[in-house]
Amino acid sequence: MKGYREVLSLYLRDLLFPPRCAGCGERLVPFDPARPALCPLCRTAWEAAGRASGLSGGWEEPAAGVYLVPYRPEDPGDVPQQVIYHIKHRDDSRVFDWLAARLAEAVTRQLEAEGIPPDTVILTYPPRRRSAVRREGFDQARRLAVCLSRRLGVPCLSLIRRPAGSVRGAGREQKKLNADQRKTNAATSYVLADDASSRLSGRFVVLVDDLCTTGATLSACSALLTSAGASGVLWATVARTASRK
Ligand SMILES: [Zn+2]
């Protein structure tokens, strides 16, 4: 049962910012306590995309992980692609929370399957480039990780950071790079936060991001976390780029 204040704040928010579908932009029914992120049509497409890709097993290589839907860059009308675009450019708490609820289910299943004790789990995320945070006003991986941590009831810690312009060319926009360039770029784009080792010792880390394309970012971050004492790392992303068949 939600508190009176919470209900009122949701009501006011829908009144001031009428909710729109993250897939097609159509108006959603306001004041819906379920706070859906997608209209019924887009939701059907989203669920069909998730089922079609046989996601239940998560990742094959190179690491254990869960994701919700495949991402098809060649198909701009694709609902998962629209959702990823939406969360990169709009700080829409309704959509982050809707995605986090779905990721929480997938992560919980995976942690249970691996026998990870819940009290050893912490969440972190690869931070967005500073220039992108300045441009967009928020970090979508962080938003997602914070919503997921609330759903799972485990702490979200900022364990990874971007070095301050010390490496030439580091932190370039990943989407402009090929797989090898991404790997090199990712390896120089992230460092551990100063207090990471003391907070990581013996902890199992869920590494949260919006999209996994080649896995370069998540691999680089996983290596940092493991080197600082994490007992294991599970990737959790909204989407994973599907290779062209
Ligand atoms: Zn829609």
Write the topology of this structure.
Layout: H1 4-16, H2 40-52, E1 65-71, H3 79-89, H4 93-114, E2 121-124, H5 130-136, H6 140-152, E3 160-161, H7 179-189, E4 191-192, H8 196-200, E5 204-212, H9 216-227, E6 232-241
Helix pairs in contact: 4-6, 7-9
The chain binds zinc ion.
Zinc ion is lined by residues 21, 23-24, 26, 38-39, 41-42.
Question: What's a quick, concise take on this entry?
Answer:
The protein has 245 residues and is α/β, with parallel strands linked by helices. 44% of the residues lie in helices and 14% in strands.
Could you tell me the number of beta strands?
Answer: 6
Distance between the first and last residues' Cα? 47 Å
Major sheet size, sense and barrel closure: 4 strands, parallel
Helix-strand sequence:
HHEHHEHHEHEHEHE
Which kinds of small molecule does this entry bind, naming each only once? Answer: zinc ion
Gross morphology is: globular
Mean pLDDT: 88
Number of domains: 1
Number of helices: 9
Strand content range: 5-15%
**Gyration radius, in Å:** 18 Å
Class, according to the CATH hierarchy? Alpha Beta
The structural class is: alpha/beta
CATH architecture label: 3-Layer(aba) Sandwich
The CATH topology label is Rossmann fold
Q: Looking across the biggest beta sheet, what order are the strands in? A: 1-6-5-2
Percent helix, as a range, is: 40-55%
Low-confidence regions: none
